[in-house]
């Protein structure tokens, strides 16, 4: 089975491919010569995932899935949320985003947050969504060299290391994307 994953983020692609069974071959946007920016104009994480999957199906015809992920911080009323990738501006710079987040939380005691991933799957003319949530806290400074995005400042509940300090395998087991992908895999098996 071949599925297109609507992403140009090679970290995400690698992370998701490592979780899929061998019989599912993942194609990237580059593999199908999709070079344009797929619109992400919806006000919700779920809406963006659906919009991207529908765009890809309509314009390229492939069975596909798209995801959208956001970091939702309690003390910031759910921000950055749907704007997580461009929290510090349209340049989509992870360091800028993390620095802005830490600045916004500087005098806040409540550092509770959650990562939320929604995957929208377009297959055999049907659209399905799968949600994964990982609750945790935001650290006061960055820790670790691995991962990407906000990983150096996010500790999952019950864990004493940030996502940037743990292995990809461990992150996939406890993380938001892993939980959503697991639901996707279970659906594809049936």
Description of the structure:
The protein is built from five helices and seven strands. Strands 1, 2, 3, 4, 5, 6 and 7 form a seven-stranded mixed beta sheet that branches. Strand 5 (112-123) and strand 6 form a beta hairpin. The protein has one domain: Maf protein, CATH 3.90.950. The model has no long low-confidence stretch (mean pLDDT 93). The longest helix is centred in the N-terminal third of the chain and has 16 residues, at 45-60. With 190 residues, it is of the alpha/beta class. It is globular.
What is the topology?
Layout: E1 2-5, H1 10-17, E2 25-27, H2 45-60, E3 64-73, E4 80-81, H3 94-104, E5 112-123, E6 126-138, E7 154-156, H4 168-174, H5 176-189
Parallel strand pairs: 1-2, 1-3
Antiparallel strand pairs: 3-4, 3-5, 5-6, 6-7
* CATH top level class name: Alpha Beta
Morphology: globular
Low-confidence stretches: none
* End-to-end C-alpha gap: 13 Å
Strand content: 15-25%
Helix content estimate: 25-40%
What name is given to the CATH topology? Maf protein
Rg calculated over all Cα atoms? 16 Å
Number of domains: 1
Structural class: alpha/beta
Instruction: State the assembly state of the protein chains.
Output: single chain
Total strands = 7
For the biggest sheet, the summary is:
7 strands, mixed
Whole-number mean pLDDT: 93
- Please name the CATH architecture: Alpha-Beta Complex
Short summary:
The chain has 190 residues and is an alpha/beta fold.
Characteristics of this structure?
seven-stranded mixed sheet, Maf protein, globular, 7 strands, 190 residues, alpha/beta
């Amino acid at each position: 089975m071949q599925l297109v994953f609507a992403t140009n983020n090679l970290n995400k692609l690698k992370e998701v491919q490592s979780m899929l069974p061998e019989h599912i071959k993942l194609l990237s946007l580059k593999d199908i010569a999709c070079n344009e920016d797929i619109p992400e104009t919806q006000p919700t994480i779920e809406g963006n995932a659906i919009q991207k999957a529908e765009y890809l199906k309509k314009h390229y015809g492939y069975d596909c899935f798209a995801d959208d992920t956001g970091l939702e911080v309690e003390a910031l009323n759910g921000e950055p949320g749907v704007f997580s990738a461009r929290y510090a501006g349209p340049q989509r710079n992870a360091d800028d985003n993390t620095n802005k987040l830490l600045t916004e939380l500087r005098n806040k005691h409540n550092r509770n947050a959650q990562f939320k991933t929604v995957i929208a799957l377009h297959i055999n003319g049907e659209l399905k969504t799968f949600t994964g949530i990982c609750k945790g806290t935001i650290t006061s400074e960055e820790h670790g060299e691995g991962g990407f995005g906000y990983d150096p400042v996010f500790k999952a509940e019950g864990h004493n290391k940030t996502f940037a300090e743990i292995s990809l395998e461990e992150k996939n087991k406890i993380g938001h994307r892993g939980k959503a992908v697991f639901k996707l895999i279970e659906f594809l098996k049936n």
